[in-house]
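User: Fold this; tokens only.

Assistant: Input:
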Amino acid sequence: MLKTFLRALLKPFSFLPAIMMMYLIFSFSAQDGTTSGNLSYKVSEIIVESADEAFDLNWSDQQINYYIEKIHHPVRKLAHMTEYFLLAVSVSFPLYVYGVRGLWLPILAGGFCVAFAALDEYHQSFVAGRGPSKRDVAIDSIGVLAGVLMVQFVCFIGRMTIFRPLAKRKKRERKTA
């Protein structure tokens, strides 16, 4: 009885990570073009300098700047995919908990996340130095697809390895009682 009550109480909170992720994405999109570019440039700089240090490459400052510029754009796009991968995971798990399974999970979670990506791009049209991009929505959609598929895979494996044996054990216990 207490378990059922706790489940009913905590289930709605399973959407909290998705709401937090949407807020984070919205916050990044609200940054002006310069701030956003500087943030991803700094990440690119950290990656290049870490690689230089980790592999003892002893690059000159000119080489480091060259590689930073070379990876800056892919880092920005990878950040898009990562944000939407995390959003898709944080939307898919609660839907799964509420019983959305099979084809409906990617349709509902994926559709919601892609719609959010499109709205987010529209939001960027009101931010200085930023603009909407269909290409970014497509890149975001790749992250969404990967996130939804990962959730489906993890939940399927969980059902096959963890929860199925538990259900069988409960069934046996009910028969013996």
